[in-house]
Amino acid sequence: MSESKKINSVEEVLEKYIPKDELHKHTLELPAESKKLAEEINLELKGYSFPAAQEELRKPRIVRIGAIQNSIVLPTTDPLDKQRDAIHQKISDIIKVASAANVNIVCMQECWTMPFGFCTREKYPWCEFAEDAQTGPTISLLKKLAKAYNMVIVSSILERDSNHGDTIWNTTVVISNRGKYLGKHRKNHIPRVGDFNESTYYHEGNTGHPVFETDFGKIAINICYGRHHPQNWMMFGLNGAEIVFNPSATEGDLSEHLWGIEARNAAVANSYFTVAINRVGTEVYKNDFTSGNGKPAHKDFGPFYGSSYVAAPNGHRTPGLSRNSDGLLVTEVD
Ligand SMILES: NC(=O)NCCC(=O)O
Q1: pLDDT at site 12
Q2: Distance between CA atoms of residues 128 and 314, nearest Å
Q3: Residue 252 C-alpha to ligand 1 middle, in angstroms?
Q4: Helices 80-100 and 137-149: crossing angle, nearest 10°?
Q5: Rounded Cα distance, 15 and 247, in Å
Q6: Which of 49, 82, 197, 282 fits a disulfide with 302 by CB distance 3.0 to 4.6 angstroms?
Q7: Ligand 1 atom at minimal distance to the Cα of residue 194
Q8: Looking at the predicted structure, is the pLDDT value of residue 265 above 80?
């Protein structure tokens, strides 16, 4: 993989060597306003569609899915409120672009509100980012945006359950397009691999495999490490999911060889759309940390390789976003 680290995206390589008219047959022309807004914030904006045969007796159910990948904004040593506000602002700006692109359901990467500080195994300050799944600052912000833009928002956060001894969970919250809390799912497979020391922070989730009925379809969330477990994907399918989001934070040496396969296979095996979203950038921490894997102590975590994509039940997939930069992938499905 060392050579590939210099590659911005697989798509860039394909574009270089494959004739234009044979690539990306189903690009989606996005509104000029969304392109303008994306340019203003230096955001990679891509649109694709999965066309389906028109039926005589059933109307199409066209849904636009938005997948957002991003780096953190400020150094991990800055005051926490400033770090979180800066990421909130970045994602608010991107959701505005998604609205201009007529997105119906948007999802961000895993724990997008914070650096992925679990590598350090330190309680403070990282657990301070944890918040209530219904009333916390992130969810309060997203409720307003969801209502203003008539958009379902799927948001991965670090959850603090104050009703149960301040326990910490890795949780994804679904907010309806009317700005209401619809429900949550807690990550059920916890990594203890490489720099992913998450078992220090939370346990396997206790929410089963819920599917959320939204105005734009039945959706579920398979959080990051859960994508390595086919039965996990299967359960969401058995429970009726039409679209399964996979908000992730993962890095090259560990998983890049699996990234393009797992969500795509899951779409085929379970007959639903999958949305694989990964963060970008390298995050640097104040204190050295080790991960019990024989590697020297270090301060940096990453690079997270982005490459977010959507896959369809027939095995087709969109090109991925870049490996390095913030992006919004808009995919129209029927
Ligand atoms: N956040 C997380 O579950 N990462 C695990 C790394 C991987 O499985 O790719």
Answers
A1: 83
A2: 43
A3: 11
A4: 20
A5: 27
A6: 282
A7: 6
A8: yes
Give how far Cα 121 sits from Cα of 75, 156, 189, 192, 198, Å: 18, 20, 18, 11, 8
What residue owns the CA closest to ligand 1's atom 8?
225
Residue spans per domain, the chain = 3-51+59-333
Confirm if 240 and 218 have CB atoms less than 8 A apart.
yes
Q: What is the dihedral of CA 318, 322, 326, 331, to 10 degrees?
A: -10
State the pLDDT confidence band at 2, using cuts at 50, 70 and 90. very low
CA geometry: angle 204, 136, 123, nearest 5 deg: 50
pLDDT number for residue 34: 98
With 90 as the cut, is the pLDDT of residue 68 above it? yes
Which atom from ligand 1 is nearest to the alpha carbon of 118?
1
Q: Report the mean per-residue pLDDT for the chain.
A: 95
* Pocket residues: Cβ below 6 A from ligand 1: 110, 191, 196, 224-225, 228, 249-250, 254-255
- The predicted model scores a pTM of 0.95
- Atom from ligand 1 closest to the CA of residue 254: 9
Report the separation in Å between the CA atom of 249 and the middle of ligand 1, taken as the mean of its atom positions: 6
> Given this structure, which CATH class describes domain 3-51+59-333?
alpha beta
